[in-house]
Specification:
The protein has about 100 residues and is mostly helical. It contains five helices and no strands. It is globular, with a radius of gyration of 16 Å. The termini are far apart.
Length: about 100
């Protein structure tokens, strides 16, 4: 039989582990690294540059999550970011929060 202590410990591990999802591994698994790099511009801007640009924008998480899913152009030059419609809103938000933490 599972004890309450075991359930509580498992829940704590899951809560503490959640930020691990927002990591380079998630970015790689969603193929973000095909166009983005942590510190240098590739096809798209560096994660660090994105974090710096949006550091004081309280709406950045919502705005960028929508932009990741729907795609966009013009914010970082002429190369458009294609829509990532296969990415769930939850995963997109986790990725955006992680990117914004890369200052």
């Amino acid at each position: 039989m599972v004890s309450i202590r075991h359930v509580a410990a498992t829940a704590l591990v899951l809560l503490v582990s959640t930020p691990v999802l927002a990591s380079p591994e998630l970015a790689r698994s969603k193929n973000c690294v095909a166009c983005h790099h942590p510190e240098r511009k590739m096809i798209g801007p560096a994660y660090k540059a994105i974090a710096e640009r949006y550091a004081k924008d309280d709406t950045a998480t919502k705005t960028l999550t929508e932009k990741v899913i729907k795609g966009g152009a013009g914010s970082w030059g002429q190369t458009p970011m294609p829509p990532q419609a296969n990415l769930s809103p939850a995963d997109a938000e986790i990725l955006v929060k992680w990117i914004l933490s890369q200052q």
